[in-house]
Design goal:
The complex is a heterodimer.
Chain A lengths: L17 E6 L11 H11 L5 E7 L5 H14 L3 E6 L2 H14 L7 E5 L1 H5 L5 H20 L7 E4 L4 E4 L3 H12 L4 E4 L14 E2 L4 E2 H14 L3 E4 L2 E9 L2 E8 L14 H5 L3 E4 L7 E4 L1 E2 L11 E2 L5 H5 L6 H5 L14 E7 L1 E4 L3 E3 L16 E3 H8 L20 E8 L14 H16 L2 E6 L9 H10 L3 E4 L2 E5 L12 E7 L4 E7 L1 E6 L1 E3 L3 H8 L26 E3 L9 H21 L1 E4 L4 E3 L19 E4 L4 E4 L9 H5 L5 E3 L4 H13 L4 H4 L2
Chain B lengths: L8 E6 L3 H10 L8 E6 L7 H9 L4 E6 L10 H18 L7 E5 L5 H18 L17 H7 L2
Parallel strand pairs in B: 1-2, 1-3, 3-4
Classes of the chains: A alpha/beta, B alpha/beta.
The complex binds FE2/S2 (inorganic) cluster (FES).
The site of FE2/S2 (inorganic) cluster has 13 residues of chain B, from α3.
């Protein structure tokens, strides 16, 4: 860490030997910017600013490009390196490492982003070239005021927090725990399992979802290194990578976890029956004290005070669960309250999943108004042998089997009025449901689709199979589902699906008994808030943003926070499992390394110059600045400082130095950026 | 009326959101005006009013300050401090006879490449309409919270 960068700033620039490298990036940069002109501008025009050599090369990030820099450092004694190429978020590390290999302090290497910020966003070649020169000149001036820095090493706590106990979170948690490290799995619902636990079969193999999921749930429930916190939510996250302190709010279950055996007698005896709109998607029932499903993990009931008679009618009433509880002491505790626990973890995996699109938002499809319009999730529950109908597919009356079913794809997806993205799973899910309906009821099935997207292993084969099974496919976006017959040809009591069949160019009205809406998936309604808790951002559509869309869909911009499953974007089960495993691998790598090298961007106070005004004290959000009353000066605890630089900007005495982004660096960069208002020749003087 | 004055603008971005928005505008190949030259800081809270005055004094016609949306700052709430400083700075600018609209503050999340690009286009047009700043480049003005070495430099 640097203490007083100011001291050696003023004259230092003069003796620097700066090497400038302008990357073509194939034609990405060279196609818009006159690379040769930028090279000459730096090499000749800025000689007086310490530039001793300036080169251009097709791909600076290639091994040859990096070796070029290394060789020059050795042969020409470069003291600063400026690479004009892509965004520092992409290759800063690459070039810093190259410098390090050649013995130059990595923080003396500066990147000028002329691809993302110039070549890719401007079309006027002259203007782009001028701007590129300005950026290069700014980087050179900044580099002249850079000082050697050392990375900060922090230890990594080997415990990990996994948020969300769906299939992605379970996978991540189990892999980390299997490696012998402690994992805290926090789940908002009473049981782990997530959406997958609600499904009957999984595409394309038609494995029973419970058969493949419950072993994982059970393993999570009994793993010695895996600590489940269900019916709980993360409330606060403090600290940084390697060392987070997480506050978890445990909602009251009104059941003593260490005493209850999960025998289920309380559930049996509870006289209150309510509609279960969570696990059973609104088509089944549960008691006021309930377990979401028989295989729930942990195998503990939860009491819902909003429907329980004891809470509604006041003390003394009902208490059936308590009366019949066979354990000693009694497992029911009506006085249980919310609890907060603190966990210390080094890394976090966010696998918070998705919400189903609310089909009521498309009134013309009639969901919620026409009884025999169902959602995909309702049909999933109906197909499930342990579901409310025992696996029978029926109309809303619970008895009549449909003779014809229409399945509408892309409900709420690929639609500008709702979500413009493809939900990625609905095509295959609709095909699976079509298969199940045919298999179980023999009904005629019409699938209404915009495009069929059956990419990935064995998916298109499944589509062929469903075609062979005689499911009808109509290509067109459904305009309306109506129960009103039009004319004497149409019978009462049917649902009419109005659609333009775009393959034959005709409007059609197809009568069916049942309509299933393949509702798409959406980010969790509170994703933004959750993102703020963990310090990560959401995309325009509301999915958590990964560090790099292609090269790093697992990390986030916040070190130590990883993503898995649908929280990052729509994906199916195999993809969620893969991402969960990938996140686990990242965490394990971190744990294995034992410590982390962090950017040495920190603030420090020069006690000599500090007047003790204490303006900075209140500005620090991390309480890193304290006032030493005896010495009459403030001091920064560099272990707590995160390097935002707010105090640096606020100090009226200029006593606070911000390493990596010092006043001198920024002021010089401003000068450099504005230098090229002049033509290169004039800029020299 | 055609106005062929091309303003030069310095843009301050924070490392976590707005700089990423600029990157996203690039990767998605959005096109916007080439007048803004960006400086990356860790957070909008790092912006010292001196930086802005320095940019204006050294030849910029406008300054764009960007950071994460309120609530999204990587350092919790430092963008609120940037907001406060921006307000104060605008008053100071008015007193110095500089149009306060030349210094614009806006938020952009890492996903908002399109918004970032559109903001730049709009701001460039606004500064273009205001015309060149023509702040005498030297001697350097002595702004509010000056770094001492600058103060010394400016003394005769
Ligand atoms: S990190 Fe973006 S404004 Fe603070």
């Amino acid at each position: 860490m640097t203490d007083q960068p100011q001291q050696h700033q003023q004259e230092q620039g003069q003796e620097e030997r700066i090497g400038v490298y302008v990357c073509h990036c194939g034609t990405n940069i060279a196609g818009v910017i006159d690379v040769g002109s930028v090279r000459d501008f730096a090499g000749e025009g800025l000689k007086g600013r310490g530039v001793v050599l300036s080169r251009d090369y097709t791909f600076m990030c290639s091994t040859t490009g990096q070796e070029l820099i290394q060789k020059d450092i050795a042969e020409h004694g470069l003291t600063r390196v400026v690479v004009a190429a892509c965004s520092p978020h992409l290759h800063e590390g690459t070039f810093r490492t190259a410098c390090d290999r050649a013995g130059l302090n990595p923080y003396l290497c500066e990147l000028a982003s002329i691809r993302e910020h110039v070549a890719w966003v401007h079309t006027d070649h002259d203007a782009a070239t001028t701007k590129a020169k300005a950026i290069v000149s700014g980087a050179i001036e900044r580099a002249r005021h850079s000082v050697p820095l050392e990375a900060i090493h922090v230890p990594v706590d080997a415990a990990t927090l996994v948020v969300g106990g769906g299939i992605a979170g379970l996978q991540a948690a189990l892999e980390i725990a299997d490696a012998g490290h402690e994992v805290y799995l926090v789940e908002r619902e009473p049981s782990v399992g997530g959406h997958m636990a609600q499904f009957d079969k999984t595409f394309p193999t038609l494995d029973c979802a419970a058969c493949i999921l419950t072993p994982k749930m059970a393993a999570a429930g009994s793993h010695p290194h895996l600590h489940l916190h269900t019916w709980s939510e993360v409330e606060k996250v403090e600290g940084f990578v390697g060392n987070f302190t997480v506050t978890v709010r445990r909602k009251p279950r009104y059941v003593l976890e260490d005493v209850c055996t999960g025998c289920g007698i309380c559930i049996e005896k509870c006289p209150v029956v309510v509609v279960d709109d969570a696990y059973e998607a609104g088509i089944g029932y549960r008691k006021a004290i309930y377990m979401p499903f028989p295989q729930a993990v942990p195998k503990l009931p939860v009491l819902d005070p909003d429907t329980c008679t004891y809470y509604l009618k006041g003390k003394g009433s009902c208490r059936a669960c308590e009366k019949f509880c066979p354990t000693e002491p009694n497992s029911i505790d009506f006085n249980q309250t919310e609890q907060r626990i603190n966990l210390r973890v080094g890394n976090i995996v966010l696998a918070t999943g998705f919400d189903l699109f609310d089909a009521r938002r498309i009134p013309q499809y009639g969901y919620g108004r026409l009884p025999n319009v169902f959602t995909n999730l309702e049909l999933e529950r109906m197909c499930n042998a342990s579901g409310p109908t025992g696996g029978a597919i029926t109309l809303r009356d619970g008895r009549t089997a449909p003779k014809s079913v229409g399945i509408i794809h892309c409900v709420g997806s690929r639609d500008r009025n709702y979500n413009n993205y493809c939900s990625a799973i609905c095509c295959m899910q609709s095909l699976k449901l079509a298969h199940l309906v045919r298999e179980r009821t023999g009904a005629e099935v019409h699938n209404f689709y915009i495009d069929l997207r059956t990419a990935f292993k064995d998916y298109d084969e499944f589509y062929q199979r469903v075609l062979d099974e005689g499911v009808h496919f109509v290509r067109g976006k459904v305009a309306e589902v109506s129960e009103v017959p039009r004319g004497p040809d149409e019978a009462e009591g049917k649902l009419y699906v109005q659609v333009e069949d775009t393959l034959i160019g005709m409007q059609r009205r197809i009568p069916v008994d049942m309509v299933v809406l393949s509702a798409g998936i959406e980010p969790r309604h509170d994703a933004k808030q959750v993102g703020q808790t963990f310090g990560i951002a959401c995309s325009a559509n509301g999915w958590f943003i990964e560090k790099h869309a292609k090269l790093d869909p697992i990390s986030t911009m916040t070190e130590g926070v990883f993503l898995a499953g649908c929280a990052q974007g729509p994906k199916d089960i195999p993809a969620s499992v893969s991402q969960g495993a990938a996140a686990a691998a990242r965490v394990l790598m971190r744990i294995r390394q034992g410590e982390l090298a962090l950017e040495p961007v920190r603030a420090s106070i020069d006690a000599e110059r500090c007047s003790g005004c204490r303006i900075c004290n209140a500005l620090c959000p991390f309480n890193a600045i304290s006032y030493d009353a005896a010495g009459g000066v403030s001091a920064i605890n560099s272990a707590l400082c995160q390097g935002c630089g707010t105090c640096v900007a606020a100090c009226p005495a200029g006593a606070i130095a911000g390493s990596g982004f010092s006043n001198e660096q920024v002021l010089a960069q401003i000068e450099g950026l504005l230098l090229t208002n002049l033509e290169p020749a004039e800029a020299l003087t | 009326m055609a106005n062929d004055f091309e303003p030069v603008i310095i843009g301050f971005t924070c490392n976590w959101c707005s700089y990423r928005a600029a990157d996203v505008a690039g990767t998605t190949r959005l096109k916007y005006a080439p007048n803004v030259r960006l400086i990356r800081l860790m957070c909008s809270g790092r912006i010292d009013p001196t930086f802005v005055l320095k940019a204006l004094a050294d030849g910029a016609d406008g300054v764009l300050i960007t950071g994460c949306h309120p609530g999204d700052c990587h350092y919790l709430e430092q963008n609120y401090k940037a907001l406060r400083r921006h307000r104060l700075l605008q008053r100071t600018l008015a007193q110095l006879g500089v149009e306060p609209e030349r210094v614009h503050l806006t938020w952009a999340s890492a996903a908002e490449g399109a918004i970032f690009a559109a903001t730049i286009d709009r701001f460039v047009e606004r500064v273009r309409a205001l015309g060149p700043l023509r702040w005498p480049a030297r001697p350097k003005p002595l702004p509010v919270a000056v770094a001492p070495e600058l103060a010394e430099e400016a003394l005769p």
